[in-house]
Automatic annotation (TrEMBL), chain A:
The lineage of its organism: Eukaryota, Metazoa, Ecdysozoa, Arthropoda, Crustacea. It comes from the Eukaryota. The keyword Cytoplasm applies. Pfam families: PAXNEB (PF05625). Keywords: Cytoplasm, Nucleus, tRNA processing. Pathway: tRNA modification; 5-methoxycarbonylmethyl-2-thiouridine-tRNA biosynthesis. Its main location: cytoplasm. The keyword Transcription does not apply. Belongs to the ELP4 family. This is Elongator complex protein 4. It comes from Petrolisthes manimaculis.
From TrEMBL, chain B:
It is found in: Cytoplasm; Nucleus. It comes from Petrolisthes manimaculis. Keywords: Cytoplasm, Nucleus, tRNA processing. This is Elongator complex protein 5. Its main location: cytoplasm.
Length: 377, 296
């Protein structure tokens, strides 16, 4: 790499050689190779994307509506980048999930909306320089998808997908005596081995494996969800996660696991699973809850809790600038946003707390809202 | 009627038909009437019904449906006769085999053309006695996923099974109907549509003698007239500092409520009580509140 004339001792600084894999890019923070989850706003939260070799644990919303969308985005992104895919599911047939991936679009679905926002602010000018969630910088990382259309069948069929629906589950062995967990691990291992994705294999890596596991730990997998810690009946699920983590770490693959955490009776099981995963996020949908009618949340569909972020090559995980995130399902796309309170537009400015205090005490204390130490008459 | 969820579900007019229907009751209230009503609706729509019974005999079940000339056929699988196979399993259905196998003669023969069937599981908890819960729920899931099955109706007691079993059932059911022991009868319904929409209602209904679900209407939210906030702590503090009683006894309250105040007397007499006011020239007569911005 010396200069052409070979007279200069200067050497052009070249970037550290990164493996070139379609759809992957190095992180600006720690040079980890990142893959998109298919949802740009989720990539942003995870520090740019999902590092190769990590597990993202997604706690499903109560009715598994939005979590399924996240899974589909994740898989669609894999199809678009021609990654190898492996989808395991018992609750819904994996074929059904693959049939209904969102279609890629070239345009940002809400583009016209953005132009409007670029206008010069005349009144609230001090917010002009407010940092918005960077939409521009990652638009070449990952694709845009349109939820109203589903992806071309031909495109999906071209992808290297292995679907696992538990039909040919074989008898489990050792700690993993559950047939399903055992045979799913076997399937993943076979896939990693046959495509030479393991880090111990010296072949140059040109592709990655995207694993999607849907509703792990649901009643169809086993009865772990209903067990208490003292019953010591979780080993199938926890061992499965441990082995899975080891396999993912030692290979060029990423994994998205969704779990129905709302049916777990013992919260300790959940914290164990949290420990096993690198990233943990939770969806709390407003469907059927009283928050559905709460005016604060009227524009959103649920809360997005970031439970755990991976600290890769560092002691602490990246710190997000806010803790309140919400997700919103627009007609064509699903986004995660900061929770903003709606502007106060009601006729009378409500002073929630003060008022309720007054109504509580109003009929007793004639002195206003503060209870006097001694009554003076 | 057509608009309400219960009406739609029990007339099988909900499109698409939910693939799994969980109906639960308790010891206090029996959901059998509702179950028969649903089965009847299917039979009337010319759908064959495979009915697995664990407690009632075949004749007993058939007696509820036979009087009507319905186009659909009712096929009863009698698990009440010999559930464990001690009598050689003659004429009965063994309950310890996986669910899809119990119905295998109808579901895998392929002779049923494209006609879909409805499977009824009458008393889930009884089958649970002869099978492990995990196997049973997996069997149920396989059954639901079968193409020839239009709907699987699971009838189960809410208070007779483990909570986990109920969680698992609700996890895979598209419709969950909890019958509540109230008067009139009410149901808490959760419908999960394939599109992802979730509808949650609480509706009351009446069941006619012909087992028709009628007069469905949403339960009026019990007017949550906030019970007078009794701030007991404040009460005691105040009471300790005063020389008079701040509260009323029941007698006193009754006497106070009975008391006719002078102005009420006038109002009841129907005369007088009007206020005459002659507007001033400086009076502000528009609807605007002049103190709008004061927020008092």
């Amino acid at each position: 790499m010396a200069g052409i004339g070979a007279t200069s001792s200067f050497q052009k600084k070249v970037k550290a050689k990164v493996v070139s894999i379609p759809g992957a890019r190095p992180s600006i923070h720690n040079s980890q190779l990142l893959l998109s989850t298919g949802v740009p706003s989720l990539d942003y939260l995870l520090g740019g994307g999902l590092p190769v070799g990590s597990i993202l644990l997604l706690e499903q919303d109560r009715h598994d509506v939005y979590s399924k969308l996240f899974l589909k985005y994740y898989l669609a992104e894999g199809v678009m980048n021609k990654h190898m895919l492996c989808l395991g599911s018992l609750d819904v047939s994996p074929q059904q999930i693959m049939q209904d991936l969102p279609a890629p679009t070239d345009t940002e679905p809400e583009e016209e909306h953005k132009v409007e926002g670029d206008k010069q602010m005349t009144i609230a000018w001090r917010y002009q320089n407010q940092v918005t969630q960077p939409t521009a910088c990652y638009n070449r990382f990952g694709h845009n998808y349109d939820l109203t259309k589903s992806m071309d069948k031909e495109k999906v069929s071209q992808a290297d997908v292995s679907l696992w629906d538990g039909c040919e589950a074989t008898e489990g062995k050792g700690v993993l005596n559950n047939n399903y967990y055992w045979s799913l691990l076997q399937e993943i291992k076979r896939k990693i081995d046959t495509s030479n994705l393991s880090t111990s294999c010296n072949k140059a890596k040109t592709n990655v494996l995207r694993l999607g596991l849907h509703s792990i730990g649901s009643p169809l997998w086993g009865w772990e969800f209903g067990r208490q810690e003292r019953e010591q009946e979780w080993h199938n699920l926890t061992a499965f996660m441990t082995v899975l983590r080891a396999m993912i770490r030692n290979s060029f693959s990423v994994c998205l696991v969704t779990i129905p955490s709302h049916i777990f009776t013992d919260p300790a099981l959940l914290s164990r699973l949290h420990t096993q995963a690198d990233f943990v996020v939770r969806l709390e949908s407003f469907q059927g809850s009283e928050k559905e009618t709460n005016p604060i949340f009227k524009d959103y569909h649920g809360l997005f809790h970031v439970v755990k972020l991976a600290a890769i090559n560092s002691l602490v995980p990246p710190i997000l600038d806010t803790t309140d995130w919400v997700f919103r399902l627009k007609r064509r796309k699903l986004t995660i946003e900061r929770l903003h309170l709606p502007p106060e537009l009601s006729e009378t400015v409500s002073r929630g707390q003060e008022e309720s205090l007054q109504t509580q005490l109003g009929h007793q204390a004639c002195m206003g809202d503060k209870l006097p130490k001694h009554l003076d008459f | 009627m057509a608009k309400t969820l219960l009406g739609k579900l029990f007339r099988v007019t909900e499109v698409p038909t939910p693939q799994s229907f969980l109906l639960t009751d308790t010891v206090e209230v029996c959901g059998r009437g509702l179950l028969y009503s649903l089965v009847n609706a299917h039979l009337r729509l010319d759908t064959d019904v495979l009915y697995l019974t664990t407690t009632h005999s075949t004749q007993d079940i058939k007696s509820h449906f036979m009087q009507e000339g319905t186009p659909g056929k009712l096929i009863v699988y009698d698990g009440s006769k010999d559930p464990c196979g001690w009598d050689g399993g003659e004429g009965g259905v063994l309950l310890n085999q996986p669910l899809p196998e119990i119905f295998s003669d109808r579901l895998t023969s392929g002779g049923t053309e494209d006609k879909k069937v409805v499977v009824v599981i009458d008393r889930y908890e009884h089958i649970l006695c002869s099978q492990e819960s995990l196997h049973l729920i997996r069997g149920l899931h396989t059954l639901i996923a079968k193409e020839a099955v239009e709907q699987v109706i699971v009838y189960c007691g809410r208070d007779t099974v483990e909570e986990n079993t109920l969680t698992a059932l609700a996890h895979i059911a598209a419709v969950t109907t909890h019958l509540l022991p109230s008067h009139p009868l009410t149901c808490k319904v959760v419908l999960r549509k394939p599109s992802g929409k979730v509808i949650k209602t609480h509706e009351e209904f009446t069941l006619t003698k012909e087992l028709q679900v009628q007069d469905v209407r949403p339960v009026k939210k019990a007017t949550t007239s906030l019970p007078p906030v009794e701030n007991t702590e404040a009460d005691t503090i105040l009471a300790s500092q005063t020389t008079f009683s701040l509260t009323l006894t029941e007698d006193q309250r009754a006497a106070k409520n009975k008391l006719l105040l002078p102005h009420t007397r006038v109002q009841q007499a129907g005369v007088g009580g009007q206020i005459h006011y002659t507007p001033d020239d400086v009076d502000d007569w528009d609807d605007d509140d002049p103190d709008d911005d004061l927020d008092i």
